[in-house]
Amino acid sequence: MRRSRRTWAAAVSLLVVAAGACRGQDRVASEAAVLARLVDSLRVPVERAAGLAFRTPPVSALRSRDQVRAYLIAKLDEELPPARMRGLETTYRLFGLLPDTLDLRTLLLDLYAEQVAGYYDPDSATLFGVAGADRAQLRLVLAHEMVHALQGQYLPLDSILESTSNNDRLTAAQSVLEGQATLASIDVLTPGQQVSRTPQFWEMYRDQVREQQSAMPVFARAPLVVREALIFPYLDGAEFMHWWRTSGPKDTLPYGPRMPVSTEQILHPARYERGDEPVPLAFAPDSGITYEDVLGENEIRVLLAALAGSDEVQTVMPIGWGGDRYRVYDTPGGPALVWYVVWDDQRSADRFVRTAGPGLRHAARPEYRAELEATTIGGRPATRYVLAPAGWRRWEAVPGVAAGGGAAPGSAAPESP
After folding, report:
1. Taking each helix axis from N to C terminus, what angle separates 224-247 and 296-307, rounded to the nearest 10 degrees?
2. Largest alpha-carbon pair distance within the chain?
3. Does 13 have pLDDT greater than 50?
């Protein structure tokens, strides 16, 4: 039977609603009862769609808007404590991805609070509905959040999502969790239609979600790097999980040792399938370090889009990323950035220097010196980018990085259920 564009549009709209919900007393007893009935009615459909069964019945409770905001503040400060928040903010400013006047914490809090109707809290293993939320929207959100409640009964979500030594790896894990919840919720709310299994759905998938951003004022005006960081686990995570469901192993879910370890693997499942893992890079010990992390393929793509003056991030073809790591230093003249990237081959390295080099140099801050040059790490082609105050010559002697062996930092993984 031929399905209408309206059906696919309704299914895709779930992604936007869910994206606002996951970040995140009773006003009246009847509202709590409605919430409990909604959760109970969704339990079996969610189990069927997710391919998992609740080991214990999901617990629900109501929260006021003020309680939700307090929760969001606490979770944001827990996930991004002041030192890490400052590190990310400084890094994105140095790359030209955030304006100096933007306060990242305030923006993220406003984004997480936008359109929240419900959320799952892994600390208390409870599904929370927001008092006064629209009933239809609450049902959409609960279908998504109940998958997270299921995941919480099979996985140590806190340990997975609190690994902050490698942001790219963390984003890959989030993409599996959000991608599974997104696909399952679409199946729950469009029973028997299997809309996500049709080519037409995926043709309109991204465009429809992007169009609906205009209905989220805070999201719509956020810088590209912030918008992509928030939406990537839902959009690209859902596509990865669609690939897993149609082409991946049928005996399990991508949990535990099968969890993807990079956004490159999420974007290009063929690379995941053949075990193409990033080269773990390690800086030598040094002083004056403010922050250190990994960009990964997806954030490099955001950087390339920003340098090109584009609001659209290209994700179709691999860029040849093999691993990266950066450091931010505190210097008398301001923060300095040293960033190494390993590439799959020389052509990929040359293409990056050719396409990104002029933009990186042009975007350098006043009184700063920017250098992008070719190098090698462990015999593989690589690039080094340095952005530093003109008077800070010490960058010429900054210890380089080495390709490490074994798993990347924070790679401990739970067992599959």
Report:
1. 130
2. 69
3. no
